[in-house]
Design a protein that fits this description.
Blueprint: H1 8-25, H2 28-41, E1 49-52, H3 58-61, H4 74-89, E2 99-103, E3 106-108, E4 116-118, E5 129-131, E6 148-150, H5 152-166, E7 171-175, H6 185-192, H7 194-203, H8 205-228, H9 239-243, E8 271-274, H10 284-299, E9 304-307, H11 317-323, E10 327-333, H12 339-346, E11 351-355, H13 368-381, E12 386-391, H14 402-417
Parallel strand pairs: 1-12, 2-7, 8-9, 9-10, 10-11, 11-12
Antiparallel strand pairs: 3-6, 4-5
Length: 420
């Protein structure tokens, strides 16, 4: 979001949308949904919970072409319209709220090298080609911990504009602290290349260790700075919806912040996330050596931890449970992960976060019988577990918005019929 002059027309439009969102946020159902999520995250679920994060499919639900504000204000308009659309058409278990979050302008700088990328023109998801800059060990000497940039003036000006627009209707607050924390395996791949990194594990592991050490130190430095600068915010509430899409879930819990919390937010008062998607094809030994051991210093700083995104963790559950004491949630992503293995390993000790394969609702014709069978199988396998069903990674829904509504209604009905 950027600050800009707001016309009378745009102001009236945004304020009308905000009033509608405030009405939605005040409905009693939102508190009931919050209660259900807190119970699940406390490992005392009343039933399997259902949520959908449309991601890129939002473009087919609330098309950018329908926005009416000037371009610089469309982020707020889109946020409000999506909340209204979800209330009217997506009856999942996600609590809807009336918070406007202005994100702190706080970012790490460069680490000495960056890839050159070639991006095709056009809209929508596209492949990117890049040239990794680390060709040999000598190149790693150019890597360094980055400087952290915090722009308090710009942050406050944007917040002031948001308060002027929405302050008498919605809860405007500045939010800080990126909750998606891993050691940056994606950054490693951009620096070295995926094929090169896979071969390096066997041919020159010291090269990978050198890069990973810099990435670890860089992330730890960033965490130190923004905690010291007091720009962190709790993420045990509505902030999960906007800013914790890496794994996709609701973070409502009474277990955060920590017992000694006095108002100043620290990392131990927050949820954290780890993942290893790019290394999903390596074995447990390589996973620990080239990924997990570099993530642990960060993951140990959080109050609760969610692990996994789109990668299968079948062979990693025991290690993750052993190495991450504050682990609470684990992703079980279909069709790559075994539901049976997950149910056996997680039981009722962790949240079983099932991510169904989104492909069936993206194809030309949806086989709803297959979709129902898949959900029923998950409910059966996950009986006795702390189960949630999270539809995400929906790049498209075949330009048929009704599919989102139908999937949610089906999953909700089957979840409510299941016996816990």
């Amino acid at each position: 979001m950027v600050e800009q002059t707001v016309s009378a027309k745009d102001r009236a439009l945004l304020r009308d949308l905000a009033k509608r969102v405030a009405e939605i946020a005040a409905l009693p159902i939102q508190q009931e949904r919050i209660r259900l999520w807190k119970a699940l995250n406390a490992l005392r679920p009343e039933r399997p919970l259902v949520a959908i994060y449309p991601e890129n499919a939002w473009n087919e639900l609330v098309p950018p072409s329908t926005l009416q504000c000037e371009r610089g204000l469309r982020g707020w308009e889109m946020m409000l319209r999506r909340t209204i659309y979800q209330h009217e058409h997506i009856p999942d278990d996600r609590p809807l709220h009336g918070d406007v979050l202005v994100r702190w302008e706080a970012w790490p700088g460069g680490i000495g090298l960056s890839p050159t990328t070639l991006r095709p023109t056009g809209d929508g998801p596209q492949a990117v080609k890049w040239n990794p800059p680390v060709k040999c060990m000598a190149d790693t000497e150019k890597l360094h911990v980055s400087e952290v940039s915090i722009n308090r003036e710009v942050t406050e000006r944007i917040a002031t504009q948001a308060r002027d627009l929405f302050g008498d209707t919605l809860n405007v607050r500045i939010w800080g602290g990126q909750p998606f924390w891993s050691v940056g395996i994606s950054q490693l791949i951009y620096l070295r290349g995926l094929q090169e990194a896979m071969l390096d594990m066997y041919t020159q592991p010291e090269l990978l260790h050198r890069i990973l050490a810099v990435l670890r130190d860089n992330q730890m430095h960033f965490m130190d700075v923004i905690e010291k600068e007091n720009i962190l915010s709790l993420n045990n509430d509505v902030t999960r919806i906007e800013y914790f899409m890496g794994s996709g879930h609701e973070g409502w819990t009474d277990e955060l912040p920590a017992d000694d919390f006095t108002g100043r937010v620290r990392w131990k008062d927050m949820w954290g996330l780890g993942e290893m998607q790019e290394f999903s094809g390596v074995g447990p030994d390589q996973f620990y050596e080239f990924s997990l051991q570099y993530q642990l210093p960060m993951l140990h700083r959080f109050g609760l931890v969610d692990y996994g995104c789109c990668e299968p963790l079948d062979k990693m559950y025991d290690m993750l449970i052993r190495e991450i004491p504050k682990l609470r949630r684990l992703s079980v992503t279909s069709p790559y992960a075994s539901k049976q293995v997950a149910a056996e390993k997680l039981g009722n000790r962790f949240v079983f976060s099932w991510k169904p394969n989104p492909t069936p609702i993206a194809t030309a014709a949806v086989d709803w019988d297959w979709v129902e069978k898949d959900i029923r199988e998950t409910l059966d396998v996950g009986r006795g577990c702390c189960l949630e069903m999270i539809m995400k990674s929906t790049e498209t829904i075949g330009n048929d918005p009704e599919r989102v509504t139908r999937w949610v209604e089906l999953a909700r009905r089957l979840a409510e019929e299941s016996i816990y």
